[in-house]
Structure to design on (144 residues):
């Protein structure tokens, strides 16, 4: 199973913002859309960075309430790992676990086509395993 399979079911919508939006506004977007991270995109929709709930917590820890008045460009993670649509679910899970992040943008031919979370990956992997178990049960019951 690949990331493309997840996006076919989940959809390709990506919630994003610009690098000049305040952290308070970013927090509101995360809350409004019930998501854990938001991409920071440039004018040509190129990925400039990503801001997660963890980034906001870290900024508040370092700067107190003043962090909410800072802008996205000041606290975003600038080095963003991406996946391709043909990346396997297992490979994405390994990358996300090893690198300790929970959201990965999906890029095809240099164009942003979606974003998946660790929750999406786990859900797909569990579905894959359930299908394998059902197949094995069917095989065992007909082979006996």
């Amino acid at each position: 199973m690949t990331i493309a399979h997840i996006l076919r079911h989940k959809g390709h919508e990506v919630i994003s913002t610009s690098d000049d939006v305040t952290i308070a506004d970013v927090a509101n977007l995360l809350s409004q859309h019930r998501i854990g991270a938001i991409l920071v995109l440039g004018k040509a929709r190129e990925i400039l960075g990503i801001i997660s709930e963890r980034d906001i917590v870290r900024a508040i820890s370092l700067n107190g309430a003043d962090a909410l008045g800072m802008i996205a460009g000041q606290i975003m993670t600038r080095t963003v790992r991406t996946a391709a649509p043909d990346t396997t679910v297992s490979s994405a899970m390994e990358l996300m676990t090893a690198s300790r992040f929970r959201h990965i943008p999906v890029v095809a031919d240099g164009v942003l086509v979606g974003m998946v979370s660790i929750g999406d990956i786990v859900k797909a992997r569990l579905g894959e395993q359930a299908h394998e178990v059902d197949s094995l049960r069917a095989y065992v019951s007909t082979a006996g």
Remarks:
- The helical segments are 3-10, 23-33, 53-63, 72-75, 89-99, 118-143.
- The radius of gyration is 18 Å.
- Residues 44 and 111 are 10 Å apart (CA to CA).
